[in-house]
Amino acid sequence: MGKPGGRAQTSMAGWSPGIPVLTAMILFVIYQNHPLWAGFWLGLAVGILNFHALAAAAGKAVWLQKEQARRYMTRSYMIRYGMRFVILAIAFVIYDIHPITLLAGLTLPTAVAVVRYLVRTR
């Protein structure tokens, strides 16, 4: 387990996905008639929310017992990906979005986190 106020907690402390998600959603609305950009901006908004929810769940699971943490993370995973599926399924039905740029937007927050980690650890 970690210590309260340790490096893992302080890296997410005070960070809210509100502004980046709002920006991505505004850009999605602006570019909704352009399938490539619409897919990217929607994917990015959902990806940021998903990554933030994962960080919040992992931060809470660290303080639980092993079995409780396993169940909590499994439940969190099912909720996050269920919501992700519903949002993206509705978007595919309602909007003309490009699936490749959607996937690029979805994976961008994870790629940024990995690169940031690699830069910090070198």
Name its key features.
globular; 0% strand; 5 helices; 122 residues; disordered N terminus; mainly alpha
- Overall body shape: globular
Share of residues in strands: under 5%
Give the biggest sheet: none
Order of helices and strands: HHHHH
Total strands: 0
* Helix coverage percent: over 70%
- Head-to-tail CA distance between termini: 24 Å
Low-confidence stretches: 1-10
Kindly state the mean pLDDT as a whole number?
83
Number of structurally distinct domains: 1
Q: What integer value in Å does the Rg equal?
A: 16 Å
Indicate the topology:
Layout: H1 7-12, H2 18-30, H3 35-61, H4 66-94, H5 99-121
Task: Explain what the structure shows.
The chain has 122 residues and is mostly helical. The chain has one domain. Helix 2 runs antiparallel to helix 3, helix 3 packs antiparallel against helix 4 and helix 3 packs across helix 5. The radius of gyration is 16 Å and the shape is globular. The two termini are 24 Å apart. 16% of the residues are buried. The N terminus is likely disordered.
Provide a compact summary of the structure:
This protein has 122 residues and is mainly alpha-helical. It has helices spanning 7-12, 18-30, 35-61, 66-94, 99-121.
